[in-house]
Design goal:
A hairpin with a 5-residue loop joins strand 12 and strand 13. Helix 4 crosses helix 5. About 6% of the residues have low confidence. Strands 1, 2, 3, 6, 9, 10, 11 and 14 form an eight-stranded mixed beta sheet that branches. The chain has a two-stranded antiparallel sheet with strand order 4-5. The protein contains six helices and 14 strands. The protein folds into two domains: 171 residues, no CATH class; 66 residues, no CATH class. It is of the alpha+beta class and 301 residues long. 22% of the residues lie in helices and 25% in strands.
């Protein structure tokens, strides 16, 4: 079965049709991004734009978008950001959700493979999850003050964002960081003493002070962390709890989902731990034993 939940930041689709003893359920988050060009005033070929779109900030030289340059930039943005985020996490199904039975009568509990899709749309589309304006920088400009809804044409480039304690460059492609924000992720050091959640969470310290933190993609670097699976965990909780409610409201489906509330595999309190390594669907006995299967099971003779 395929089902969808529409969240404010993204749509989430859960596909359990692909489940068998060797394949998990697939959870795809879809971001519909509405892109709008920012061009020099009056149709001019060249102009300028303020950093962060803030009139109090410095200006940078800009040039007019051409149709070819606009298409190339959007295609590159979507393909590279999507490839960075999709297919990197697997969630451990500690809720006992979405059980299935094979033709031989063997029951399994699937885990969940996390995928992501970016759809580029016109900025005026009614169903955009996020609206993003983009300036095209003059070739002489090497930097522009971007934020989560204002990008520049060089945001897809790999550039130095920081330097670690050993003097090594910390590099980042800004657009993959910004897509993390669009998914709902905050900067790596939010909540620490130097970046209180109640303060300016865009301050430079929030991008990571310790080497390990600044290298995070939600810091100044390009490293994925298991905590970055949180948008998928948020979505799967919705599907899992929804499965229980469906069972409660539909008497014919009551026993299995409602029974799990009584025997320990409780969707309401499941953690859905994230892993980087693929693992396989488990039998009820394997779930009860806490076994996580990472070696491919042998196919029946």
């Amino acid at each position: 079965m395929k089902s969808t939940i529409k969240f404010p930041r993204f749509d989430a689709e859960l596909d359990t049709d692909c489940c068998d003893p060797y394949n998990n359920a697939e959870l795809t988050l879809t971001l519909r991004l509405g892109f709008t060009q920012i061009n020099p005033a009056g149709g001019a070929a060249a102009g300028s734009h303020h950093d962060y779109g803030n009139a109090a900030k410095p200006t940078r030289k800009t040039i007019k978008w051409t149709d070819a340059a606009w298409k190339t930039w959007k295609d590159n943005f979507c393909s590279t950001a999507q490839s960075f985020w999709t297919g990197k996490f697997w969630l451990v199904n500690d809720a006992g959700s979405f059980p299935f039975v094979t033709k031989s009568g063997q029951g399994y509990i699937p885990n969940v493979w996390c995928r992501m899709k970016i759809v580029a749309q016109d900025g005026s589309a009614a169903n955009n999850h996020h609206s993003i304006s983009v300036v095209r920088l003059d070739p002489s400009e090497s930097w522009f003050g971007s934020h989560s809804t204002l990008y520049d044409s060089k945001d897809t480039d790999l550039v130095q964002k920081n330097t670690d304690s050993a003097g090594n460059k910390v590099m980042q492609r800004a657009h993959v960081h910004e897509v993390g924000h669009l998914l709902g992720l905050g900067h790596v050091d939010i909540g620490k003493a130097h970046c209180p959640a109640s303060g300016d969470t865009n301050a430079s310290a929030c991008y990571g002070v310790a080497d390990n933190d600044m290298k995070s993609v939600m810091g100044s670097g390009m490293e994925l962390r298991l905590e970055h699976a949180e948008p998928w965990r948020e979505a799967i909780r919705g599907f899992s709890i929804g499965e229980v409610l469906t069972g409660v409201l539909a008497p014919g489906k009551l026993f299995l989902p409602f029974g799990r509330l009584l025997i320990g595999a409780n969707p309401l309190f499941a953690v859905w731990p994230a892993k980087f390594k693929r693992h396989y669907p488990r039998t009820a006995e394997e779930v009860a034993a806490g076994t996580l299967i990472t070696a491919k099971p042998a196919r029946p003779a």
